From TrEMBL:
This is Alpha-ketoacid dehydrogenase subunit beta. It comes from Streptomyces lonegramiae. Its EC number is 1.2.4.-. Its cofactor is thiamine diphosphate. InterPro entries: THDP-binding, Transketo_C/PFOR_II, Transketolase-like_Pyr-bd, Transketolase_C. It holds the Pfam family Transket_pyr.
Amino acid sequence: MAAQKMSLSKAINASLRTALENDPKVLIMGEDVGKLGGVFRVTDGLQKDFGEDRVIDTPLAESGIVGTAIGLALRGYRPVVEIQFDGFVFPAYDQIVTQLAKMHARSLGKVKMPVVIRIPYGGGIGAVEHHSESPEALFAHVAGLKVVSPSNASDAYWMLQQAIGSDDPVIYFEPKRRYHDKSEVDTAAIPDPLHIARVARAGTDLTLAAYGPMVKVALDAAGAAAEEGKSLEVVDLRSMSPIDFDTLQRSVEKTGRLVVVHEAPVFLGTGAEIAARITERCFYQLEAPVLRVGGFHAPYPPSRLEDEYLPGLDRVLDAVDRALAY
């Protein structure tokens, strides 16, 4: 298939379809992923085309879904599990961190765990409680798990292909408020490695680092800053575990300043680790402290208040101004 423009959700669907076609050991499991096609219709049409034995509607039991996926992986399958919403993952947290993440080390490398857990995450869709969380730092902290998040349709397609092909478990966070954003997808391209960050916009005055849903906000901020004569470099991290600190370091050595942006609360978030590491690596190149922009250290609010909670253009530009003032 030649390059074509598609939405992020359609790119995920196309990637799942490709994986099902290429490997009979790939299975898709989750609540309403089959007949309904998922609550966001991301798996639409897959059960119809591949059957109920490969696209499996499960009971409403996240721990059971992940536990079953672990058993299937032990038998040579490559299950792709969908957690319907971010806040629903916690009943399965025990299975993920005490079993899935540990099997490879516990078996001294003999047992592979090729399990992908897809999690639509983040806010911005006017949802009710438990439907707008950003729990990526909880999983990035757990050794044995890979944690990634695409920001555009091309990455959504290719990063899912790479996650399914991995022999290690991958937590694949999908920015649900970007599901309808469209971009070019070339399914014949050679993709970037799964855990390599990408410079989404070159600049010289300050580095903005973001991932998933916040990359668009960072790019918008860079565009707004350019109108005032400020040159911001935007780095799409793509991966939260491992983090590509080398690409970040090269950018910060050039710009001298770094602002990290994510939806999750700033307190003990992914940005905290990035700030610490870049301060260690770039101490003599930094012209200002590394600043972080994110959610507040509070439960996610009712939808009518989420615009106040989520970091937007103004909060990012305020951090940029503070960093450039040093």
